[in-house]
């Protein structure tokens, strides 16, 4: 599914941003006009043009707020938040770039300004985790105890973005929703500098602990959804956290080992290879120069894993596999697949086959208009099917 750009990565990220139009996170004309100004494959051009749009929409929000136009201000703030997030997306090649924090903080602050203009109940929460805290948002669908869906993203999403992707749909269907950022994600990597970890149960268990103390939550109806890389992280947590009533892998991911992915593009990652050799580095650089997806994937990997080299990134992602783990999951699992997933083709099926407990496989196709990674562009349909499954599993 190509949108404006021939470059697959740029096309997909535009689809991702524009897909939130259905939930108030974008407007079609704003996205298209921004995209037409961007030089294809140019990360700086991407940043500059999305920043211009974000600033303009942000200014509209501020003016509306001053005039007391609550609804308009909220709508503008929400879109500005998404556009700031999009602008920041390709900046991670230089972790010291001050624009990363500046732009991300604008995305967060505009989102929170929008929340302050919402009528529904929400809270900014801090969840105790080891010697620090994990940030999140708790959204309540009503005043009575009810089921809750925990949602976390993956390799690159933020807690604010997940409001558009999942939270609105959850609330409409009567689910409380707790969205949080763990190691390697959002503010945890940007401000606390805590990288990803493979044993995600160490992250989810404190979140479940927190929820079981909340009177609004039915403790026997706590479900977990992981998105993108979260399609590995959530099942990993479910294998060891027995209080989860259901797990959703959107989309399913059996392993996230950069070594295997590097091998698939011709990089020698055998035991006696030297990934730091000038020959290998030059080869990788040549591939990154031609392929924006590979370039972004490696740069973001170094950023979120605090790796200084591809060799270190390969080493740090080696434990990211559900081999010998998936079969331990006892709660019902929904494994989603996107027919033309550019990121993890074949992985959902591998995860599904390894599960031994109750399981459901849900494939989204081009005919559904939902074939892209995590079904961007068809989130209304995806959420309908996912929550239909969850309603059945939780007897809601």
From TrEMBL:
Domain (AB hydrolase-1) ranges: 148-352
Transmembrane regions: none
GO MF term set: hydrolase activity
InterPro entries: AB_hydrolase_1, AB_hydrolase_fold, FrsA_esterase
Record's keyword annotation contains Hydrolase: yes
Assigned keywords, A-Z: Hydrolase
PANTHER family: CONIDIAL PIGMENT BIOSYNTHESIS PROTEIN AYG1 (AFU_ORTHOLOGUE AFUA_2G17550) (PTHR22946:SF12), DIENELACTONE HYDROLASE DOMAIN-CONTAINING PROTEIN-RELATED (PTHR22946)
UniProt family annotation: Belongs to the AB hydrolase superfamily. FUS2 hydrolase family.
Protein name: Alpha/beta hydrolase
Organism classification: Bacteria, Bacillati, Bacillota, Bacilli, Bacillales
